[in-house]
Amino acid sequence: MQIGGRKLPAGQRITLIWASANRDETVFGDPDEFRLDRDPASNLLYGSGIHECPGAPLAWLELRIGMEELLARTTWIALVPGNLPKNAVYPAAGFSVLPLRIE
Fold first, then answer.
1. Is 47 left (phi over 0), alpha (psi -120 to 50) or beta?
2. Residue span of the signal peptide, if any (predicted)?
3. Does the model's pTM come out above 0.90?
4. Bridge partners of residue 77, in order along the sequence
5. Residues 70, 75: Cα–Cα separation, whole Å
6. Residue 102 — φ and ψ, nearest 5°?
7. Between the CA of residue 48 and those of 35, 56, 96, what are the distances in Å?
8. Over the chain, what HEC string results?
9. Which of 2, 5, 14, 62 maximizes the CB count within 10 A of its CB?
């Protein structure tokens, strides 16, 4: 069989990395950019089909409420100068450290 143009022999083991799938340039042009105009239906963060996370609706609700409350009380959010974000390591995605100044 072939995956992404690469031949795999029968019985070959593969690893699925969801975070990597969400960074596929053929689906998410410029995957390192934060862009609000992306199609959320293409995101695999909460799985897909019968493997979709049953807690996804609760996570979306918590995130929405948290962001609404933060933004209602905030006038400025910026990276702390001189303190770079640190990328999380597999299997996590995003940042393990994100120093922000919130006013």
1. left
2. none
3. no
4. 102
5. 10
6. -120, 120
7. 22, 11, 25
8. CEECCEECCCCCCCCCCHHHHCCCCCCCCCCCCCCCCCCHHHCCCCCCHHHCCCCHHHHHHHHHHHHHHHHHCCCCEEECCCCCCEECCCCCCCEEECCEEEC
9. 62
